[in-house]
């Protein structure tokens, strides 16, 4: 029943693909306009600190992982237990500086900021620079001169070869 034991029995599956997708989206994004608010971070910490102990334990982090998943993947599959365990391990690895298996607010703050930045980048794309305006000189189309003595006034274009015929359409024109 420990976090380590449960995580060891799981396979990466859906979490790996989903996290790779998020990282790819975040890599394409920008932090333009991003503003970090430590007060909101504090509110989030206090919300998950259900027992008001001043730190987040594994069970509180499991709830955080669930909400975090739904934030990043609102239309995706629901998080499963192995993925929650994986995410809690990742949160702990990146936040629990004194390795006491719980996270204090000072430990939580940098992690929360990284997640807020990742979410912002994943949802705010860089503007593509406008394509350079190039004026192309359009060549004047030259139609072939109808053959002499055919009396052809009508031209046909072959749908397969794109050749122009005068007078009588080629056999391919019937296909178009």
From TrEMBL:
Tell me the keywords, alphabetical order: Calcium
- Print the organism lineage: Eukaryota, Cryptophyceae, Pyrenomonadales, Geminigeraceae, Hanusia
From which organism does this entry originate?
Hanusia phi
In terms of superkingdom, the source organism counts as Eukaryota
Keyword Aminoacyl-tRNA synthetase among UniProt keywords? no
Q: What is this protein called?
A: EF-hand domain-containing protein
Give start and end of each EF-hand domain: 36-71
| InterPro entries the record matches | EF-hand-dom_pair (IPR011992), EF_Hand_1_Ca_BS (IPR018247), EF_hand_dom (IPR002048)
| One Gene Ontology term of the molecular function aspect | calcium ion binding
Q: Please name the Pfam families in this protein's record.
A: EF-hand_7
Q: Keyword Calcium, does the record have it?
A: yes
């Amino acid at each position: 029943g420990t976090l380590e034991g449960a995580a060891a029995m799981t396979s990466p599956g859906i979490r790996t693909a989903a996290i790779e997708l998020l990282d790819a989206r975040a890599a394409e994004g920008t932090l333009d306009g991003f503003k970090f608010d430590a007060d909101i971070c504090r509110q989030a910490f206090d919300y998950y600190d259900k027992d008001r102990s001043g730190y987040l334990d594994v069970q509180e982090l499991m709830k955080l992982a669930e909400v975090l998943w739904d934030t990043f993947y609102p239309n995706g599959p629901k998080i499963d237990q192995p993925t929650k365990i994986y995410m809690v391990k990742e949160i702990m690895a990146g936040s629990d500086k004194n390795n006491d298996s719980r996270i204090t607010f000072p430990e939580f703050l940098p992690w929360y900021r990284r997640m807020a930045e990742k979410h912002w980048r994943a949802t705010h794309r860089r503007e593509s620079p406008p394509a350079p305006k190039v004026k192309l000189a359009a060549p004047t189309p030259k139609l072939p001169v109808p053959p002499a003595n055919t009396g052809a006034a009508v031209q046909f274009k072959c749908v397969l070869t794109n050749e122009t015929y005068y007078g009588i359409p080629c056999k391919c024109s019937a296909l178009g």
